[in-house]
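= Tokenised fold =
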Amino acid sequence: MSNEEYDHLYKIILVGDATVGKTHLLSRYIRGSLPSVAKATIGVEFATRTIPLAVGGTVKAQIWDTAGQERYRSITSAHYRRSAGAILVYDITKKKTFLNISKWLEEIRQNSEKDIVIMLVGNKVDLAEEDETKRKVTYEQGASFARENNLFFSEASAVSKLNVKHIFENLLQEIYNNRLKDNNSVSSTRSHETYESAIQITNAKNIIKLNDKNDKYNENNANQMKCC
């Protein structure tokens, strides 16, 4: 399929403090590898990828990587507009990046559409797997924050590939689900059944828990996503 052939176009923003790994997550998902040279994002950068949804046709994702430094805030906040989804990232080995999530969330909601779908991601799980003492934010803390603020949630690692694919593609599926629901509030039986099928595939309301460490699709994928 050509990259130009798609049914939906969704703009996604990556948001969070500097050095939490936003660029690495994007590079791993788009290119399948990490950046050869680690460098801070200046302003905003973006990449695209076209994928088939589990339900709903094909989507072209425009994924915008925003700078985490304070001096770029006025530039990056302007790019929140017309975003269908956001991936809000913190570093599980740096408590401050988690504490700053609240201000990032407020900024997203002030500058984006009211129906934006947000995925909270605790990145750099690989560091905690090597040495558990490096973990400064527990899984339960992340899940609790997500639950309280009606966000989806997952931990991930751009280095080990843990959940990278699932984070982006489940967010895209949820955007489709929400829009289908809104567009068919007074729906035919057929469209209602389509919506129900989409919900069954993503199988989550507020929090997604992903455990596929190989980051490969399998028939039990829906069962790996649980509402915590």
About this structure: The beta strands are 8-15, 44-52, 58-66, 85-91, 117-123, 152-155. The two ends are 36 Å apart (CA to CA). The chain is about 35% helix and 20% strand. Residues 142 and 189 are 38 Å apart (CA to CA).
